[in-house]
Design goal:
With about 150 residues, this protein is an alpha/beta fold. The protein contains six helices and six strands; from the N terminus they run E-H-H-H-E-E-E-H-E-H-H-E.
Length: about 150
């Protein structure tokens, strides 16, 4: 697995850079021992969980104590979400991140998804960085928080 690129909405890149976590975030995906393909999502998620824990992040954090809705990680005023499943789940992830922002719990977030080519190797109809980036630009007045979309392959 490797980092493929990042896209910034509402100055998301600047927010990660301001906290000196931009390189750390993209380095999460430099894992040559993980091969993208069918059945790889468990290894990807395990790797991400280990790296988040090592970096001091909370893992699988509830967005509200009354609901079993989580984001992959939180650290201070940032949230991180990875999506290796269906495209509809990525849109749902954006709703959870928007909620955290509107509640004043975060100031910026990152959503990591595979490239289209990598997603096709994982399964059918998997979220892709190309599609998510296109759609967040369409909804840029609904998605109002600083967001960095990270692509990996």
């Amino acid at each position: 697995m490797k980092f493929a690129g990042a896209y910034s909405l509402h100055n998301g890149q600047a927010e990660w850079e301001k906290r000196e976590l931009s390189d750390w975030l993209t380095d999460l995906f430099e894992a040559p021992g993980i091969t993208i393909g069918s059945g790889c999502t468990g290894r990807i998620r395990s790797h991400i969980a280990d790296e988040l824990s090592a970096g001091g992040w909370s893992h699988n954090v509830r967005i509200d104590p009354h609901y079993d809705l989580t984001v992959t990680g939180r650290f201070r005023d940032l949230a991180f979400q990875i999506q290796t499943g269906n495209i509809s789940r990525a849109i749902y992830d954006l709703m959870k991140l928007q909620y955290l922002y509107q509640q004043g719990k975060i100031e910026a977030a990152a959503l990591a998804v595979p490239t289209k080519a990598a997603g096709n190797l994982i399964a059918s109809n998997v979220a892709s960085v190309e599609r998510v980036w296109g759609e967040v630009q369409l909804f840029d007045r609904i998605i109002t928080f600083p967001l960095l979309i990270v692509g990996f392959e």
